[in-house]
Amino acid sequence: MRITSSTVTRRYLNNLGKNYGKLNESENKITSNSKYTRASQSPLEAARALKVRKAMAESETYQTNLNNANAIYEAAESSIMNISQLVQSTYEKLIYGANGTQGPDEDLIIGETIETFADEMVRLMNLTVADRRIFGGVNNTTNAFEIVESESGEKSVKYNGISINKYTDPNSFPLSKSSYLDIGIGMTVEGDNSIDGQSALPITFNGAAMLGCGLGSSTTFLDLESIKFGETYSITVQYGADKKTIEFGGAATKEDNAEMLNELFEENFGAGKLSVSPETGLISRQDPEADFSVINAKDDSEGYGSVGIEDIATGYANNIIQLTLDAAACLKSGDKKGAARYADMIFASQTTLSLSIAEIGNQEKFIEFNQERITNNLYTLMSKQNDLEGTDLASEITNWKVLTSIYDASLQMGTSTIPKSIFDFIG
Question: HSE of 250 in the Cβ direction (CA atoms, 13 Å)?
Fold first, then answer.
């Protein structure tokens, strides 16, 4: 069988092209650090790599969500901390106004200053972060908090358009639910299309829950100055299921009377259950919802003095902003005794802020934990991706050198395989 020179040339060029293709493919693997550029080159590994890439994209989304959430929580914490400072300033102003000897004009100025504190609290609670009104629940169109003034000049607070005093349950306000972010812990949707709060991270807050809402239960004050030194007194106190009759002798000062009563309350009801303020006589309760009453058990005819007891049935506002406005109005009207009582209520309201700060702090720890989890997960996925798609450079460089040698040898073979033309002899 006769093999023509054109057949030899064609086969040689075909093999030379294959060798060059393999060399070029090896060079691409080295420069791109990828085992393959098309799925057809390794279908099984490409399918597995696609799953890894999808998991990486999801993890990166969760990481972005956590970073955004962290910024929101930092802003929320800063706002609540600033409100805490304003509450402390309000308390100091009220104490000064209640105990000072200043006249009506100065009381008016102090009251107006306290009102500016309330305005600043509203501004802080209407904070927008990442295009979200973070204290508005799911309300993202209007300010969550606003101060409205009646025709008589009385100022009140509204939350999402409803009077803050209307509901004691913060979840009763419209649009009060939280917005959530998926952070990769299995976000699930309930039957009513709401997000399961245990499966995602809340990124907006119920402002009514943060600062309180509704009216407190009845508030009781003891007139400590009515307790005279040397006289004997008998009062019956009911707190929840406990009902005790307490007898005591009057002390020299109202501060001593308060200290004595606090010791008796602790002895009869337990530590921290009841306490009386030495400044105003306000009785604070650990459980404001528990049944509570104080009455004089024995009267003058039995040789006992009468303790001044005042119950305010309507109670005070639970919301810190509303409480601040009410305190300012009290001071502006010249009611120094009332201002002192509001000072106690303002001071006690810091417990609500402390709980809100603690809740935010716990969520920040949760964010930090999940950021670390996502980072570790991404590191693992990147390692898997490199195993599936990445080139083993040491092995591939060795292969490239072998292919280079083969290609160079192929070129040398061409000098003896391809027939020379007349042009090779011209010169």
Answer: 19
Q: Which residue has the tokens 């798609």?
A: 389
Neighbours of 392 (CB within 10 A): 14
Q: Would you say the C-alpha torsion 193, 197, 202, 207 has a positive or negative sign?
A: positive
Q: Which residues of 21-49 are buried (b: 16+ CB within 10 A; e: fewer)?
A: ebbeebeebeeeeebbeeeeeeeeebebb
Dump pLDDT digits (tens) for 16-46: 778 777 777 767 766 666 666 666 666 777 7
pLDDT tens digits for 168-194?
899 999 998 888 888 888 888 877 677
**DSSP 3-state assignment of 401?**
helix
pLDDT digits (tens, 9 = 90+) for 244-255: 999 999 999 999
Residues whose CB falls within 8 Å of the CB of residue 361, separated by 6 or more in sequence, listed in order: 77
Residue 351: which of 320, 313, 323, 324 has the closest Cα? 320
The residues, any chain, with a CB within 8 Å of residue 148's CB and separated by 6 or more, are 155, 156, 157, 158
- Whether the full predicted model's pTM is greater than 0.85, yes or no, is no
Q: 119 and 83 in contact (C-beta within 8 Å)?
A: no
Query: Parallel, antiparallel, or unpaired: how do β-strands 128-129 and 132-133 relate?
Result: antiparallel
List, in order of start, the domains of the chain with CATH numbers.
Answer: 53-215+348-375 (1.20.1330), 219-315 (no CATH)
d(CA 150, CA 329): 13
Give the tokens for residue 206. 């119920």
Instruction: Give CA–CA dist 236/245, Å, rounded.
Output: 4
- Please give the Cα distance from 57 to 67 (Å, whole number): 15
If you ran DSSP here, which 8-state letter would residue 300 be given? G
* 57 token code pair: 């994209």
